[in-house]
Backbone:
């Protein structure tokens, strides 16, 4: 499986539907890295153009990969070694291209249906299982900005519960989605 994931902090929307760069949440770094390691993801990209946020993420990652945290919790070190901080989605795609020798298929996630080519979980699982290089993009704040949706090859069907309420944390949504796409059956 050649699955990569990206947590995009820009461009995303705020609650007023304005394009913003969202802040990094250190819990996301830990939890999504552990998800990535559990489900066999090759790399977890933390994507932000904000230098102070890059520095924050790098400092946290250094502590657990090289500092006291590395010896204190080797399991966390193993998971966080999958995390890489990049400035843009294009940088993540470029890194994957240099590693894999081909550009990844881009699958965006979104809590609501948008325009574009929707992809159900059965077909997405087939794509990932076919060994096609794939980058699954998760948005922060109030979701991926329209340009990211347009650039993506597919938009994954949203996670939906039995109610009309649909505002999961990105960590929760990522866990559900990765289990559906890469979990053992």
Residues:
């Amino acid at each position: 499986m050649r699955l990569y994931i990206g947590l995009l902090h820009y461009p995303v929307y705020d609650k007023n539907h304005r394009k913003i760069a969202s802040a990094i949440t250190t819990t996301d770094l830990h939890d999504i890295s552990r998800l990535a390691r559990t489900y066999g993801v090759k790399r977890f990209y933390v994507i932000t153009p904000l230098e102070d946020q890059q520095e924050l993420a790098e400092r946290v990652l250094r502590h657990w990969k090289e500092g006291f945290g590395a010896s204190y919790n080797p399991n966390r070190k193993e998971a966080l070694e999958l995390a890489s901080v990049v400035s843009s989605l294009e940088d993540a795609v470029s890194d994957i291209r240099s590693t894999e020798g081909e550009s990844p298929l881009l699958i965006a996630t979104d809590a609501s249906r948008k325009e574009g080519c929707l992809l159900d979980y059965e077909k997405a699982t087939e794509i990932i299982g076919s060994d096609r290089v794939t980058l699954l993009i998760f948005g922060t704040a109030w979701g991926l900005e329209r340009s990211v949706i347009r650039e993506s090859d597919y938009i994954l069907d949203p996670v939906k519960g039995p109610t009309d309420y649909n505002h999961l944390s990105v960590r929760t949504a990522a866990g559900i989605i990765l289990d559906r796409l890469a979990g053992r059956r």
